[in-house]
Amino acid sequence: MKNKIKVAVLGATGFTGEMLVEILLDHPKVEVTYLASRTPNAIPYHKIFPRFYKKTDLLCENLNLDKAAKNSDIIFLTLPHTVSMSVVPQLLKEKRKIIDLSADYRIKNLKDYKKYYKIPHKDKINLKKAVYGLPEINKDLIPNTDIIANPGCYPTSVILALFPLLKEGLIEDKVIVDAKSSITGAGRKAVIDYHYSNISDNIWAYKPFIHQHTPEILSILKENTARDIDLTFVPHVVGVDAGIYSTIYITFKNKISKIEVTKIYNKYYKNCTFIRLLESLPKLKNVIGTNFCDIGFALNSNGKDCVLASSIDNLIKGAAGAAIQNMNIMQGWPESLGLL
Ligand SMILES: NC(=O)c1ccc[n+]([C@@H]2O[C@H](COP(=O)([O-])OP(=O)(O)OC[C@H]3O[C@@H](n4cnc5c(N)ncnc54)[C@H](OP(=O)(O)O)[C@@H]3O)[C@@H](O)[C@H]2O)c1
Known about the structure:
By secondary structure, the chain is α/β, with parallel strands linked by helices. The chain contains twelve helices and 15 strands. It folds into two domains: 5-129, NAD(P)-binding Rossmann-like Domain (Rossmann fold, 3-Layer(aba) Sandwich), CATH 3.40.50; 153-314, Dihydrodipicolinate Reductase, domain 2 (2-Layer Sandwich). The strands form two sheets. It has an eight-stranded mixed sheet with strand order 3-4-2-1-5-6-8-7, with helices on both faces. The chain has a seven-stranded mixed sheet with strand order 10-11-9-12-15-14-13. β14 and β15 form a beta hairpin. Bound molecules: NADP nicotinamide-adenine-dinucleotide phosphate. The site of NADP nicotinamide-adenine-dinucleotide phosphate (NAP) has 30 residues, from α1 and α12.
């Protein structure tokens, strides 16, 4: 195990924690050294997730921050929001690098944080230092921080589709996003709405105008394009196990051709391993189990009205895969190590 970086996953019994462990166990440059949750007693990880039987003998332990810091160089937090910001200050003091998958360090505006997450932010100092880890738009900032705010799943799909067109100033302010998420987007806890009989063969819209990912989409686009949009964001839950599919309605300010739109996406994304610009609209199943974001568009014959579609696996490009992509960049390793 020489020359390997030691990594810990805090929140290892959740959906994103499980996906992280799966990818990390096969990563050539890391050794997983510590897994934790609220389990009162240490328990073999494969007793929680039997698919890890004979793959790892690691235990999942009751979360102990001293032990997490002592046993690792990089710590992934797959904890609920508000819990992450209660553990980050100590871990950063111990000089560990943090990749936080919760929303706690994504939104710099304290009023927005309180409005959408219902409690005041408790760690303003580290909030200022955190870098939003979306390598396709701000890769240069990632190696220079000790704390990465890993993007949300809906925001990843929406921001990546809109960023090049907005940055170029080509689209009208009004943007409507109709986004569909799989059921794993809601985490592993038991909720009546997500019982098999309620979720199978079902779909519903929820939290239009007030979903907590709205300020994240707006603020990250603003920071990286210096432009505002007038966003209507309508998320939906769909009875599938994995994936996010965002359909985005935009209008170009001036008439444009399909070739010109394609050129703009290529200008920003031609060197991005994990973005696949398609000639047709994406299909969800093509990204499941991958770290890709598939993007396609359909332009009306008037050359102005346009539908963008963007698809990711919520647990991979929307969470664990993106976190590992960020770790690779932080460490100066090839971005796709362990992910292709
Ligand atoms: N699911 C997605 O698609 C997705 C995508 C992007 C980002 N995220 C974000 O990633 C984070 C994890 O999401 P998830 O879907 O994996 O959630 P989850 O399935 O509910 O898992 C949460 C994990 O945190 C642990 N935990 C909860 N409270 C804790 C506490 N006070 N102390 C220690 N451990 C605690 C849970 O352990 P127990 O087993 O002990 O409860 C579990 O391991 C969330 O912030 C979520 O918003 C999720």
